[in-house]
Amino acid sequence: MTTPARILPADDHALVRHGVRLILDAEPDLTVVAEASDGAEAIAQARGNDIDLAILDIAMPRRTGLQAARELARLRPGLRTLMLTMYDNEQYFFEALKSGASGYVLKSVADRDLVEACRAALRDEPFIYPGAETTLIRTYLDRARTGEQLPARPITEREEEILKLVAEGHTSKEIALLLVISAKTVERHRTNLLQKLGLRDRLELTRYAIRVGLIEP
Description:
The chain has 10 helices and 6 strands; from the N terminus they run E-H-E-H-E-H-E-H-E-H-E-H-H-H-H-H. The chain is an alpha/beta fold. The chain has a 6-stranded parallel sheet with strand order 2-1-3-4-5-6, with helices on both faces. Helix 8 packs across helix 9. It holds the Pfam family GerE. InterPro entries: CheY-like_superfamily (IPR011006), NreC/VraR/RcsB-like_REC (IPR058245), Sig_transdc_resp-reg_C-effctor (IPR016032), Sig_transdc_resp-reg_receiver (IPR001789), Tscrpt_reg_LuxR_C (IPR000792), WalR-like (IPR039420). GO terms for molecular function: DNA binding.
C-alpha cells in the first residue's frame, strides 16, 4: 500500500485548519501530520518534519503564506506548496506563481477543489481554481508574449517582512529580535518604506499593509 502524502496546513484560524484536516484525512492517499498558525511556524514545522506538501493561507501573522512559500522554496526545493485563500485577486495569483506555489485554491470552494489541488501539486502539476483559469492564464500568457513585465512588488522581501510586523504593532526592538537584525537596521528599512511608498507614518503603513493583503483588517 502506498504511504499517504504528508501534509502541513497553515492558517491562523483553527477552524479552517480543522476543516482542511477533515477534508484531507478522509482521503486514503493524503494525511495531515502537522499544523501551523502562521507563516513562521509553517517554516519551522516544514524544517522539523518530513512534509510533502504545505498548504498556506495568504494572510497570516508574522509571515504571510507568500513569504513562507518563498522561504520554503529556498530551504526545501522539493517541497510542494499550495496557496489557500479567500482572495480572488490577480496580484496574489502572480505572486503565488513567483513564490513557487503549485496552485491557488479559494477557501469558499475548498471542499470541492482542495483534494484535487493537493494531488496535482504532488504530481508536480499546476492547479488553478476553475473560475480563474481562463482570465488569469490568458493575462499571464499575453504579458509573456508581448514582453510586458508581470506585476512587480514595489518593495523588497525584507522590507515586506518589516512592513508586516510594523503593521501588526511590533516595535523596532521587537522586530529586530524577531528578524535577528539591529533596531537601527529596522529603522532604516522603515524610512525606506515610507519614502518608496510615499507614506507618512505607521498608520499609513498599516493601511497599505491591509490593502495589499499582508494583514487582515
